[in-house]
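> tool_call: predict_assembly(chains=four)
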Amino acid sequence: MRVQVLFFAAARDAAGTDSLAIELSHGATIQDLKVALMNQTPRLSSISGSLLWAVNNQYQSLQHVLKDHDTVACFPPVSGG
Amino acid sequence: MRVQVLFFAAARDAAGTDSLAIELSHGATIQDLKVALMNQTPRLSSISGSLLWAVNNQYQSLQHVLKDHDTVACFPPVSGG
Amino acid sequence: MIQLVTDPIDYSAVTESVRSNDAGAVILFLGTVREFTRNEQTSWLEYEAYDEMAIASMAQLEAEARSRFPVKEVAIVHRKGRMDLGEISVAIAVSSPHRADAYEAGRWLIDTLKERVPIWKKEHYSDGREEWQHPGMTPVAGSDSSATPKLPAEKGEAR
Amino acid sequence: MIQLVTDPIDYSAVTESVRSNDAGAVILFLGTVREFTRNEQTSWLEYEAYDEMAIASMAQLEAEARSRFPVKEVAIVHRKGRMDLGEISVAIAVSSPHRADAYEAGRWLIDTLKERVPIWKKEHYSDGREEWQHPGMTPVAGSDSSATPKLPAEKGEAR
């Protein structure tokens, strides 16, 4: 299956792009996506411990199971206000 | 000596006037003024336990000693805001 | 900005007066005329002030807020006279580098203004009654009590 | 009123949107661009948002504030893009019958917005440096830690 990953702020700078399409096997979790991303964009590793993940506008943990065509947002801690 | 007393809000309604000149003996306190006022304007007695006193824009206790020509404000608890 | 006014309060002007490049936070408080208090319906309010002392007292609040909290600017504007439903009776604006201080200073200012500043509110109810609002006033029927209510805390006393 | 805007925030419109005859208190919070943080001098800020989620998240904040506090109306407007010193990045207005609730709700809204809403601030310092602000971000030099930071609290979790 295939998910679209959106990067924001320092995560976008580290990824060098604002989005990537990633192929994953059926039943993959955000943790699996994270491992795939770190292989593909090694500079993300330096902030990997701080990244937050959201699917369909909701924060999700690394255990969250992804579905085909999900849009996953990947970003560092927020600093609005 | 002589002091000018200003009344506000429910105290003015009870006194029936917004100011009174009161004669007091030298060394009189606000307590002495209060006794003189209650004799002169008996309707003030009904709220006498709640009245606040200010001299020269500062709250003062009943023990405060008055001076000739002082302006004393007499009013109930405030309710601005 | 310390003012006692009769015209409607321009809260944008109050807010602008405290904005600063040194502040990261501005808090504005507006007191507005509420229609219902418990089951009583207000038609309009009337505020009376002891003008001279009210202005001195508000200026003292500003000075005290500056000594208690790391605020940049303070503005306090109270209106007097007749006010209809929804109108603004008081506006207090505070700016501070950080929001926690702005919130605390703003809260302290309105709480303390309500305890100290010589302004009184008279409710005019929809049934025609009118009534001065005097928090904590205890009429002493027929007796000239020599008790005196606790004086509003002045500068330097306990918080 | 829930908005993510690029033009300057009209805080009077934000405030007017929450005024009500049922409210006795209105609190407006403005976040503004501060020049100095410790010894660092800011020239300007840039805010980036994940628009779709930021708007959904602010709408959820309003819903949650209404369930937690007896508020009448809530308005949250955040700006994105470049902001100069003194400009307003966020405006939050709350109205409530009583001031204590308005203060608490307003404070909760800005505190929670800063934890949850996907918006990021980049500092542009006077010495030419630029730096994303990421509270609590701990770069893990050279190691792909599988740890994940605590998720921002969602609706229904501990206060």
